[in-house]
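We examine the record.
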Amino acid sequence: MKGVFHVHSAYSDGTKSIRSMAEAARSLGFSYLGLSDHSRSAPMRRPHCGETKKAVEEIDQVHAQMDGFHIFKGTESDILPDGSLDYKESWLKQFDFVIASIHSHFTLPKEEMTQRILKALRNPYTTILGHPTGRLLLAREPYALDMERIIDEAAKRNVAIELNAHPFRLDIDWRWCKYAKERGVKIAINPDAHDEEGLRDTRFGVGIARKGWLEPEDILNTLEAEAMQSFLTGRKP
């Protein structure tokens, strides 16, 4: 693991500054960090566009001061019930990456939920599908969806699927990892961290990836920083 994505700061529902999260990631041996605060529709404490713009500017400032460590600018954009993302493309294009996630309307029928996610995967700015089934272990069941079709579409669109390493999620389920591998879908092991300590949850995701028969070449963020930069740049429209 060379770096992690899906990291929140105090600009949304995280508790620490961008600098604190970056310095903590570097101290853990990572060479890059992908900041992805929540977008405007998330039910968590959400920033308005002005705060998002300020966060993007601060990422650039902190990145310039951290020699040898890269901070990628991202967002966790909500997938709306109709499958569109809650930021327009004119706003999404400023980010290095976009994690598309569901945070509402969990009880849609299976086909409707599947079509919702398929549409999000077809958005040209979607880089990673975040916590794809929305489950919270011992608290919330995964929503109904056709995961095989989701993985097939991700393969077609070159979208990575997240293995959310937060111990309450561990989502994508390990049982789907082998099929994703067979279809050539990259898995992004992300901690969904909201403070420095949350970055350490990455190890739980590594364990689940091993359980699912994944190897380093199947994991997106085993790429070195320069290769990751090339991958992200190459995916943008």
Q: What stands out?
A: Helices lie at 18-27, 49-65, 89-92, 110-122, 147-157, 177-182, 202-211, 225-235. The longest helix spans residues 49-65. DSSP finds eight helices and seven strands in the chain. Strands lie at 3-7, 32-38, 70-78, 97-101, 128-129, 160-164, 187-190.
